[in-house]
């Protein structure tokens, strides 16, 4: 069977049904570009379930994408208080699940659809002739292959944490000690309480995730005698983000620095700086972390809050231009270099900074930051707004808005500051699936 695929008949595949992935689908829908969202989990926001107990630093008003908010308004959604800071569970239950059910998106989301590879139909990374006009082929874990006119990878980094070892490599013995290590954000006041109460927990990391865990452990220690807390930091000095009264774009995040410093000075938290873990040894019922300089700490439990990194292996057959340090697009790297922009949100950016040599392929959301960590959801919303406009050929593709609050949503009736045409696209039939005996005509894609 021979089938010709015109560019407009193929969907834009969005990988991930988290906040940024669903926002991408909402913006594409508004531009009359049909999306197809592929979510590896069983429901929207599946990965957030692992940190459902964590409260965000930012308010509802900054965590709801305007295009998504408008779709929800049309569906009769009851909006939350825009000034409240939601937990991960609230983000999923009150926003992502209702958004995934709106008529314009519900039929465009496939669950339990894990992407394992992306390529160009009929050619590998070396093939150049007609590449921009050749559809992408997206392969799923179950062997299904889908065709797409473009790709927006918003799959995140949650399942790819950094190692405990200080050089970016696993510490010696790290795999053998896995039963004692937590690479997620354990709910030490809830489900994780039994393994932390009355015991010694070491928290490794100098970011805000580590800070949140430390504060929860301090609260647990106040309730449960015998609970000990040690904070291990690789740097020689405590990260500037924890300096007392340091300015921060998010007040709730900035206040943590003052509180944490007080706890260290009072002795409630034992701090070890310049501790680069080289080895982990399992003892009778504990683990021992040994630093490169010979210092050692013995603990019942170790929380590895050393951050996450982007995994680009599914795009190995695409032409990517990655920054050698951060692992992000080369155009974005100077804007998010942590040595230059720690404490500040990245300047407004969009297609120009996110593009790769592979036409029509974009990485958005926290995955776009590579190994940089100062990511805000509102930044991801700005990214997909410009990507959707670019794929639709809109002049708004280069308009980023002003200020980092530029994409905030503040209640029913919100409208775009500069709206595109708004005609929600409803599912109108099955998405084309590649078959082994089909051929694809190289129809150039407009605006790519």
In short:
The chain is of the alpha/beta class and 448 residues long. The protein contains 11 helices and 16 strands.
- Integer average pLDDT: 84
Shape category:
globular
Largest sheet: 5 strands, parallel
In percent, how much strand structure appears in the residues?
5-15%
Description of the molecule:
With 448 residues, this protein is of the alpha/beta class. 23% of the residues lie in helices and 15% in strands. The protein has helices at residues 19-30, 60-63, 66-74, 88-100, 103-106, 208-223, 251-266, 333-336, 338-341, 351-354, 377-392, and strands spanning 12-15, 35-38, 109-110, 115-120, 136-140, 145-148, 150-153, 181-182, 200-204, 228-232, 270-272, 277-282, 287-291, 296-299, 301-304, 361-363. It has a five-stranded parallel beta sheet with strand order 3-2-1-7-16, with helices on one face. Helix 1 links the parallel strand 1 (12-15) and strand 2 (35-38). The longest helix is centred in the middle third of the chain and has 16 residues, at 208-223. It is globular. The two termini are 28 Å apart. The model is unreliable at 1-5, 399-407 and 409-448 (pLDDT under 50).
């Amino acid at each position: 069977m021979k089938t010709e695929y015109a560019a407009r008949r193929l969907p834009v595949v969005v990988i991930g049904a988290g906040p940024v992935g669903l926002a991408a689908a909402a913006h594409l829908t508004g531009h009359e570009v049909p999306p197809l969202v592929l979510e590896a989990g069983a429901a929207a926001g599946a990965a957030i379930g692992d940190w459902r107990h964590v409260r965000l630093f930012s308010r509802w008003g900054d965590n709801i994408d305007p295009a998504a908010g408008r779709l929800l308004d049309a569906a009769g959604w009851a909006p939350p208080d825009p000034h409240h800071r939601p937990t991960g569970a609230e983000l999923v239950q009150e926003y992502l699940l209702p958004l995934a059910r709106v008529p314009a998106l519900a039929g465009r989301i496939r669950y339990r659809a894990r992407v394992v590879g992306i390529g160009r139909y009929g050619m590998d990374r070396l093939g150049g002739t007609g590449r921009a006009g050749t559809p992408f082929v997206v392969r799923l874990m179950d062997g299904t292959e889908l065709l797409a006119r473009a790709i927006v990878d918003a799959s995140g980094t949650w399942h790819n944490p950094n190692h405990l070892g200080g050089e970016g490599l696993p510490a010696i013995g790290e795999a053998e000690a896995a039963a004692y290590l937590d690479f997620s954000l354990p709910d030490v006041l809830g489900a994780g309480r039994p393994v932390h109460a009355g015991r010694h927990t070491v928290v490794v990391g100098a970011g805000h995730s580590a800070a949140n865990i430390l504060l929860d452990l301090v609260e647990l220690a106040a309730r449960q005698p015998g609970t000990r807390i040690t904070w291990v930091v690789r740097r020689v000095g405590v990260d500037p983000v924890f300096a007392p009264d340091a300015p921060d774009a998010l007040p709730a995040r900035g206040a943590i620095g003052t509180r944490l410093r007080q706890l260290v000075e009072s002795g409630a938290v034992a701090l070890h700086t310049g501790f680069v873990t080289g080895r982990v040894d399992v003892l009778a019922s504990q683990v021992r972390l040994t630093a490169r300089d010979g210092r050692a700490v013995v603990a019942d439990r170790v929380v590895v809050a050393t951050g996450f990194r982007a995994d680009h292996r599914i795009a190995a057959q695409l032409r990517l231009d990655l920054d050698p340090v951060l692992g992000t697009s080369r155009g974005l790297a100077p804007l998010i270099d942590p040595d230059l922009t720690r404490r500040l949100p990245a300047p407004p950016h969009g297609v120009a900074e996110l593009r790769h040599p592979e036409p029509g392929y974009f990485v958005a959301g926290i995955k776009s930051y590579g190994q940089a960590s100062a990511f805000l959801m509102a930044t991801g919303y700005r990214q997909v707004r410009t990507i959707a406009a670019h794929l639709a050929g809109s002049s708004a593709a280069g308009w980023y808005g002003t200020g980092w609050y530029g994409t905030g949503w503040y209640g029913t009736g919100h409208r775009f500051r500069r709206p595109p045409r708004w005609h929600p696209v409803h599912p109108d039939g099955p998405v084309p699936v590649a078959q082994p005996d089909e051929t694809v005509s190289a129809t150039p894609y407009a605006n790519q």
